[in-house]
Write a structure and sequence with these properties.
The chain is an alpha/beta fold. It contains 16 helices and 20 strands.
Length: 499
Amino acid sequence: MKKKIVVIGGGFGGLSAANRLAAKGHDVTLFDNRDKLGGRGYQYEVNGFKFDGGPTVMTAPYIFDEIFEAAGKNREDYFKMVPLDPFYRIFDQDGNYFDYMHQLDDILKQIDKWNPSDKDGYVKFLKNTRGIFELFHQYTDQPFLNFGKMMKIMPGVIKLGGYRGTFNHVSKYIKHDFLRRVFSFHPLLIGGNPFYTPSLYTLIVQFEKEWGVHYAIGGTGAVVDGFGRLLKDLGGKIYLNQEVEEILIKDKKVTGVKLKDGSKYGADVVISNGDVANTYKNLIPEIYRKKYSDSKIERMKYSSSLFVYYFGTKKRYLDSKFSHHNIIITDKYKKLLREIFDGKKMSDDLSLYLHMPTVTDASIAPEGCESFYVLALVPNLDANIDWKVQAKPYRDKIVNYLEENYLPGLSENIIAEHYIDPLHFQNTLKSYKGAAFAFRPSLLQSGYFRPHNRSDEFENLYFVGAGTHPGAGVPAVVSSGKIAAELIDPSPTNGKGRF
């Protein structure tokens, strides 16, 4: 039966669900409050440079391919992806680096440069991550709506040590301090502290080993654009600069949405790709909510936020040490993370992720120029930081650090720049507390314990994105769209789309 479906937000999760449901013939309308689709994957354009706004690490291309195949289309007709190797270049505080490669032999050669005795431990660690992957992978595109499913996998979690903090878990296998940091950083990609995030999230390691790390030519914006074009090809409607102000409720069911301009749109189903906490707290009056009361939302644990500085230079830096994806992890790593996740003020230290996509794709910058973005984890808005005052000095601190250590003459060569901070996550992306990855990926906020893809409050309200199962990160968010779409309409597609 054809349903009228409204999708709030055009991020990866919303676009994933919208395309799957449009391919099944449903009437899909998507509203986004910005001038372009993308959500956290929004692409900024400044002085001829294209800067990917948020996620840049893409694994498992099959997750994207499935969506286009369900519509009878070929993903490569919409955007192209290329594999990267190394996946990441990881630096210590002295500028020495480890190339995190795809193939085991290449990784072992890198370990050999740092601590040869850790090679056997790494092989054992990989065997453990394979076990975690085999236990959890089947659930990464399936709903977690009942507690019994969670209990079914708990013996495996305990056996594999998946409940331990990732850093401590890695330390069982790896003895060199820097290598422990190298092999435990993955929780940072999903808003978690490696010292506390359960090691069940090392399944990300195996995702990368299985399918590689990829880059979309034209940047993340090319993926977003491809999804948007597919939705239009399938007859879906997209309305930009249209902010949803309220989700309408009657008799414990969602009946549609009201926009900020006062107009109303009826719907049989509403899918929120907005922040889950913000959706419940600010789009649905508390009188209608029982489980997700304002006090419950306040009690939940939230991820860090981000300061992201985008900049383009009038010269190339091809002689720098940087690769495509770079991570700088200093020896004050543990102290820094404690201050970010538990502190109430800005840390004096820096650990950075630096994206240098022009190494792979010169098309996203003017000829002879280089494009960068550098990301720093910072506390969310629970911290006592006035970003209206602190943003510019923090930007300067990052530029000075990079200029002194990696990119000589940087400040005089910058010809395009932009930054976002926790206030952007709160005010533009509507993320509660400015948390960049929604809820922290803790054991008690994962799987069944994470807000469900189908609302517990209203039977025809669904959630996609980082705040619901399976969590943050591009593959997980795209998979959340599949989960929601299958819950709404489990009928198979014929691979021909709606036409």
